[in-house]
Hints:
Number of helices: 9
Structural class: alpha/beta
Strand content: 15-25%
Shape: globular
Order of helices and strands: HEEHHEEEHEHEHEEEHEHEHE
Distance between the termini: 17 Å
Number of strands: 13
Radius of gyration: 17 Å
Helix content: 25-40%
Number of domains: 1
Largest sheet: 6 strands, parallel
Amino acid sequence: MNLRVHIGKARQFFLASVHPRPYALDTPEPIVSFCFDDFPRSAYTEAKAILTAFGVRATYYAAAALMNTRNDLGDHFTQSDLDELLADGHELACHTFSHISCRRVPLTVFENDVQKSKDWFRELTGLHSANFAYPFGHVTVSAKKQIGAQMNSCRGTYDGINGPIADLNLLRANSLYGGTESFPRIDALLRAVEKHGGWLIFYTHDIGQSPSRFGCTPALLEKVASTAAERGLRVLPVQSVIATATHSLKSFSPEISNYLA
């Protein structure tokens, strides 16, 4: 393991330990959530049939400024995509307005951008955007404290399983990238949450036969969704899981369970 990896692991451990907001998952069942970040159109147009086939309602963390644009993830969402997504019962969540990193701008700029995103959601959909994901997975101590106090949950990209105590200021999540060659790693996570319980969150970006390095193929998404269904795992969007987390704890050990350690 090289020095950069060591530093990254140390940063993750430190950020996971500060300013936690502990919640006990008030459910005996293992839970799985599927998340799509940035909201490239393919995350809905290509994933819709798969999600519908397995009764999956997902969480889409949309960055408002990406609407009607195109980048290396492909075309991004349109107004009609938002309308259809919400009509289908999926969750629309916050990913800042401008898709900026809290490591690269002052905290006040980052906070204002999050608030701008929340205002945009409310004006466009009439809904309150209560859940948040950090763009690029970048987290700072000050952002975790400040943004965590403003949202029902904040999700990062630190891998592992949430539970039995989850930190709602920095939920753990696991990437769905590439094709079915990635499934053994994912299957290990599914088996772990099935055996030990907890809340397993997956995230990806675009969906396609030749996805970006931040996306996955339809075959991988279908294999993960079908495996979760076959094993009887409960699949819920983030907002529905948060609604079950009713037991706030006054004290908290910074070691959030990983189960794979």
